[in-house]
């Protein structure tokens, strides 16, 4: 009888533990400085991962990371196969599937990059891009102005490596991307010296944690994460993380 009771108790403990795990969706390719897998350390790193981990731990959750192509990442968080995404711009297209935290935890910038040696142009006015074929990644957000696909011609591909290849292969004239992520994948492809970035960035916006609306507690969880992020942003550890990953301090 005692053995049966012990078995039931262990099963209950196991169920309780599994109930504290949130499936966190990340893109198939590393996306520094927001998330990337450090093979040497054997763990996830990046400002979004670090903030999510600290906040989840405070709230009694563990995060289990699963990689998806980015367009499927949005789909899986939206349909409940994943519980949370730690790095998303808050857009009207994404809002039906997720509940966002009310405050951001970092800013992200979008830059234009080109083949090295091509004519440099001033990216402070994006209207000149209307004349060219642009490269981008499926389901990525590049700012409201650049979302107009009728004004800006875009070839969208699956990930950063494909984006670099279509640029160098001449299929697009310019490409859009997060500079640290593009630099990482260009290094891995051995072509970092073949691309150049233009200044200033064409978009800068806040990024948020997103909770799947398929969860019954989605609004409560988003509210809990919001309060925890707010508290964490007031700590020295958060300031250290911003400096470590080279991210500007938030102004709100």
UniProtKB/TrEMBL annotation:
Note whether Transmembrane occurs among the keywords.
Answer: no
All copies of domain Solute-binding protein family 3/N-terminal, residue ranges: 21-249
Lineage, top-rank taxon, reads Bacteria
Pfam families given in the database record: SBP_bac_3
Please name the SMART domains in this protein's record.
PBPb (SM00062)
- Signal sequence annotation: 1-24
Keyword Repeat tagged: no
Q: Spell out the family assignment given in the record's similarity comment.
A: Belongs to the bacterial solute-binding protein 3 family.
Q: Which PANTHER family match?
A: L-CYSTINE-BINDING PROTEIN TCYJ, MEMBRANE-BOUND LYTIC MUREIN TRANSGLYCOSYLASE F
- Name recorded for this polypeptide: Amino acid ABC transporter substrate-binding protein (PAAT family)
Organism of origin: Marinimicrobium koreense
């Amino acid at each position: 009888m005692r053995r049966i009771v012990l078995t039931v108790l262990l099963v209950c403990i196991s169920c309780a533990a599994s109930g504290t795990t949130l499936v966190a969706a990340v893109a198939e390719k590393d996306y520094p400085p927001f998330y990337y897998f450090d093979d040497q350390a054997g763990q996830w790193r990046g400002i979004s991962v670090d903030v999510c981990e600290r906040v989840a731990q405070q709230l009694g959750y563990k995060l289990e990371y699963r990689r998806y192509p980015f367009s499927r990442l949005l789909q899986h968080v939206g349909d409940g196969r994943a519980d949370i995404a730690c790095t998303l711009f808050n857009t009207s297209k994404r809002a039906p599937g997720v509940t966002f935290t009310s405050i951001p935890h970092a800013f992200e910038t979008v830059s234009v990059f080109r083949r090295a040696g091509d004519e440099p142009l001033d990216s402070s006015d994006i209207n000149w891009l209307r004349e060219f074929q642009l490269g981008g990644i499926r389901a990525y957000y590049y700012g409201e102005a650049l979302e107009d696909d009728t004004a800006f011609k875009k070839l969208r591909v699956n990930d950063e490596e494909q984006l670099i290849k279509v640029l160098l292969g001449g299929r697009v004239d310019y490409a859009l991307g997060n500079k640290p992520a593009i630099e990482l994948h260009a290094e891995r492809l051995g072509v970092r010296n073949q691309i150049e970035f233009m200044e200033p960035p064409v978009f800068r916006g806040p990024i948020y944690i997103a909770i799947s609306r398929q969860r019954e507690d989605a609004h409560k969880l988003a509210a809990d994460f919001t309060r925890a992020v707010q508290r964490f942003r007031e700590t020295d550890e958060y300031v250290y993380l911003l400096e470590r990953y080279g991210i500007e301090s938030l102004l709100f």
